[in-house]
Design goal:
single chain; about 250 residues; alpha+beta; Rossmann fold; six-stranded mixed beta sheet
Length: about 250
């Protein structure tokens, strides 16, 4: 039994045609199912647990990167297979998973090629795609052996499913796709140097694969993980014990 969780932005009229086409394709494949809709106050986990008790085996998230992160970060322990139908813009994770954006994603879903993927853990909550520590005066300790810090501020990005992007100059934008099955997380550390009195300049990032990391600040710093923003003085990051089972495409990037 399939359950489909639609993001609230899909109610917009400009998505009406593509959503209808997707639903027709799913019906043609014989995998249409119950549709549930998210709103700004919905906690996906109890909703999914309830559907599992009713017999749901596959939960399909319909939306974009934000949708996927919001749902999976709250539902990583649910006993089901997850799938993703990316719609619209802001879909960097779809490429990593080998899932085309739009109606062709239904073809991937119908083939049910499954992989088990790593899940991140941060201060007693999960994250799936990426964790971002905005530039701050912090110290990074990883695998209880190594320490990194900057002379001034530093930005930290910890990636799992979502690629890390950075721009060396105005003409280039590089992307690094990490491996969500390697039993490690990847941290990208970018120190900032005072370019002049009006701002800072980013240095090139350093990459650190790790199993466990602590980020400590003398003052509270801002952390964003799968769309949830919080102020922290200390963050402990590691791989969760469990994994999620997810349907992926043949052209996945791992």
């Amino acid at each position: 039994m399939y359950v489909y969780i639609y993001d609230n932005f899909l109610r917009h009229k400009k998505y009406e045609s593509i959503v209808k086409s997707i639903e027709v394709r799913l019906t043609d494949y014989g995998i249409a199912g119950k549709i549930l809709r998210l709103n700004n106050y919905t906690d996906a986990k109890p909703m999914i647990d309830d559907e599992i008790r009713r017999g749901a085996k596959t939960v399909v998230i319909v939306g974009n990167d934000v949708t996927l992160g919001n749902v999976l970060s709250r539902s990583a322990t649910c006993d089901c297979v997850f799938a993703f139908l990316p719609v619209g813009t802001d879909n960097t994770i779809a490429d990593v998973l080998g899932i085309p954006v739009g109606i062709e994603a239904c073809d991937v879903l119908s083939r049910r090629r499954k992989e088990r993927l790593d899940v991140g853990w941060m201060n007693n909550r999960y994250f799936i795609s990426q964790l971002h520590v905005l530039p701050a005066k912090v110290e990074v300790i990883y695998d209880e052996r190594f320490k990194a810090y900057a002379n001034d501020k530093m930005e930290v990005v910890v990636c799992n499913l979502q690629p890390f992007y950075w721009q060396k100059d105005k003409k280039s934008q590089e992307r690094l796709v990490v491996h969500p099955q390697d039993g490690k997380l990847e941290a990208f550390l970018r120190p900032l140097t005072k370019a002049s009195w009006w701002g800072y300049k980013y240095e090139s990032p350093s990459i650190f694969p790790f199993e466990e990391m602590e980020i400590v600040g003398k003052e509270p710093f801002t952390v964003e993980a799968d769309g949830k923003i919080s102020k922290e003085i200390k963050v402990k990051i590691k791989l969760a014990h469990g994994k999620i089972e997810m349907i992926v495409g043949r052209n996945r990037r791992f």
